[in-house]
Amino acid sequence: MKIGVCIKRVPDTETRIKIGADGKSIDESGVKFVLNPFDEYAVEEALKLKEQAGGEVVVVCLGTEASQETIRTALAMGADSGVLLKASAVPLDPLVVARALAAELEQGAFDMILFGKLAIDDYGQAVGTMVAELLGLPSVSAITRLEVTDNTATAQREVEGALEVVEFSLPAVVTAEKGLNEPRYPALRGIMLAKKKPLEIKEVDLDQGGMEVVELTLPPERKAGRIVGEGPDAVPALVDALRNEAKVV
Amino acid sequence: MSELPYFTAEHQQVRDLVRDFAESEIKPVARELDLQSKFPWENVRKMGELGLLGSTWSVELGGAGMDYISYIIIVEELARVDASHSITCSAHTTLGTSPIVQFGNEEQQQRYVPLLASGKVLGGFGLTEPGAGSDAGGTETFAEDKGDHFLINGSKIFITHAGVGEIFVITARTERKPAKRTGGISSFIVTKDTTDLAEAEAVGVGHDPDLVKTPGVTAGKKEDKMGWRASDTRELVLEDAVVPKENVLGEPGKGFINFLKTLDSGRIGVGAIALGLAQGALEESLKYTSDRKQFGRTIASFQNTQFALADMATEIEAARHLVYHAAWLYQNGKPHTTAAAMAKLYASEACMRATTKAVQLHGGYGYTTEYPVERMMRDAKVNEIGEGTSEIQRLVIARDLLKDYAVA
Ligand SMILES: Cc1cc2nc3c(=O)[nH]c(=O)nc-3n(C[C@H](O)[C@H](O)[C@H](O)COP(=O)(O)OP(=O)(O)OC[C@H]3O[C@@H](n4cnc5c(N)ncnc54)[C@H](O)[C@@H]3O)c2cc1C
């Protein structure tokens, strides 16, 4: 089975985001970047599929030069090879990104393509599904379980108050939700092996598409919490605070 | 994270991996393990799976084939969250395994290193005795040549992993009256069953039933320690231990010189533990002081707090340079004895100051087990004692300084 996983380099969730001088971008100085956590689930699932059915796992990343590190992380986890679609910046418009990825994936004859359900930097939740549409493939988003047998697969997704089970044929595109699996750490030997795995860099020329960042602002600072007391004695004070201060009950 | 000339992108990956592992797997359990003085078997298994217990040995010997600086990064990052986990990795690697890799013959390497490198069993190093601490050449343990084997009698104390471990390198006298006091000491590989058979069975690592055990080698009572409480420290008792000749490690009589070499690199490791621990204490202090309010403002806004934080950070930075410089010298096969002693001396003393300041900055809260700085301050002290006290480091450094002068 040939499995493709699309991954993105994003700021670490622990990073304190500062807005750049232009008011439209993140100040990247001192920011630590990581493999998008939802993409980790996608990589892990791909590796599990490979362990089960054999084949190869190719990671594809659209990003700047620095995204090579992110690809190496996926290779250290166990992916076989990587492709960097190198751009000077990652456009905000998901359709531009999806087109570039689809053009690359189209040539790969993949049986299964996995994405994270969203990237934690822009929370778009769009690229995976768009790629499926562009490639004319079935797509299941935000899956929490996946089983593949030959040319068909079953995926599970959590919908409001219920579980939805979807059956589909391969090739297909799925996007991974938290809970799909427990991503492995890249072991030391994986890090050593990753150095020798193929990483192809292809320059891509992208337009900015139909979206533009006008302004970025930080969310208002959250007010500090307050402990009203401990144990059953504190309940009246808590109810009072919820009712009269927070006005939520 | 400061940029040092020694680090590559791959080193950063190692750091990220270990930091991530330490934050998610060690941080949640460190307090409880310390309180109960419980050995972290579950995490030992995980560290083994990640390759952290054999990072620098060749792939052929079951290691990950990484360089020494990667290993120092691992030790530092483990200690940033918990020193006990860090000494477990470091004592196992530099003290327990490295002498076999460095001085062992082909057969000894093949027999013992893969077991150790994978973390299948734990290793240790028995040098210290009741009468031979700083004066390690004062070894009284005696190995009597019985023709086809040695009969060893003696007591090794304060041995990291003496209980949990199964493979040990020990030193013993093979000559009653050597020409030189430190001569006539040889190294041996001895084995025993882990004291934690049930735990080992439950987690699947820690015991190898196929490993031939040395009759007469046992573990004494576990020490009740100030710090490193989740690490296992005990007496290793050798009572008519029957050690086959093939278990002599390295050249007979070269034991003293060889363990000095082992200790040189061990000291860089202890420096890295102190560095990580101090860094962890600094980060805890930054978090706490910018959150805690007194007199209507955060305590981090007081200049005294800022000065304390700045001093901690500066000393940590200096320690980092000494530790990685010594590691670089070691890795590149350059003389490193003095650099290693300086790194350990400075890092461990800076760590003691940093963790003490961290508790001070936390006030009464820092004196309770509720906050990790309390444990960190207790864990700091032994870095000034183990693998050569601070005083011994000063002696090593001074000996080098004065080597060309006549000091009678
Ligand atoms: C937690 C822990 C783990 C350990 N793990 C191991 C291990 O795995 N393997 C192992 O072999 N050992 C181990 N040790 C032992 C450790 O290396 C010794 O404790 C250490 O070398 C000091 O020896 P000592 O305790 O006998 O102290 P002593 O040598 O009695 O020293 C007491 C004091 O006298 C000072 N002193 C001694 N000689 C001089 C001198 N010439 N000049 C100035 N001052 C001097 C010392 O600096 C110290 O302050 C461990 C110890 C601890 C606490």
Mean pLDDT of chain B: 96
CATH topology annotation of the largest domain in chain B: Butyryl-CoA Dehydrogenase, subunit A, domain 3
Distance between the termini of chain B: 46 Å
Name of the CATH class of the largest domain in chain B: Mainly Alpha
Domain count of chain B: the total is: 3
What is the global morphology of chain B? globular
Q: What is the C-alpha radius of gyration of chain B, as a whole number of Å?
A: 21 Å
Report the radius of gyration of chain A as a whole number of Å: 21 Å
Helical fraction of chain B equals: 40-55%
Order of helices and strands of chain B: HHHHHEEEEEHEEEHEEHHHH
Fill in the keyword field for this structure.
heterodimer, A: 249 residues, alpha/beta, Rossmann fold, 2 domains, nine-stranded mixed beta sheet, two-stranded antiparallel ribbon, 11 strands, 27% helix, globular, B: 408 residues, alpha+beta, Butyryl-Coa Dehydrogenase, subunit A, domain 1, Butyryl-CoA Dehydrogenase, subunit A, domain 2, Butyryl-CoA Dehydrogenase, subunit A, domain 3, 3 domains, four-stranded mixed beta sheet, four-stranded antiparallel beta sheet, binds flavin-adenine dinucleotide
